[in-house]
Amino acid sequence: MWKLTSSLEHALDIPDYYLSVEFKAGLPVKVTVGPEMHVDPVEIFLVLNQAWNRAHRYCNRFIGVKSRGCYESPGATILGAAHIDMEGLTPDRNVRALRDQFVTVELGCVLYNGHFFTRERGFIPSQKSGE
Hints:
By secondary structure, this protein is α+β, with helices and mostly antiparallel strands. It has a single domain, classed as Argininosuccinate synthetase, chain A, domain 2 (Alpha-Beta Complex), CATH 3.90.1260. It contains 4 helices and 5 strands. The chain has helices spanning 41-48, 74-87, 93-112, 119-122, and strands spanning 19-24, 27-33, 36-38, 55-60, 66-71. A 3-stranded antiparallel sheet has the order 1-2-3, covered by helices on one side. A two-stranded antiparallel sheet has the order 4-5. Strand 1 (19-24) and strand 2 form a beta hairpin. The longest helix has 20 residues, at 93-112.
């Protein structure tokens, strides 16, 4: 079932490196892993996907059934954690709380249920200013 990752028992014995992620307008534009720097978006994901990460999620699906999702997405997991860390330094507490109360939860539901191109998604305010 697993295509990108190995179990911890079979993982490569590679040295630990510091990882640095640079964002511009909320998007990752540069990743430095040890001595190597990567700026191409596809290359960033390919490099970060070499990390170890597996997740199991049990969900109540939109159609009313339970499901088990098995995900291997180390690149997305690393970038998501880095973005959350960055957000701890930028918006103030009240702005972040309001955004998370109104935008994050509703947008997550819309995306999870596959309703991106619907009128409901149009009612959710954009994160970019002026839109």
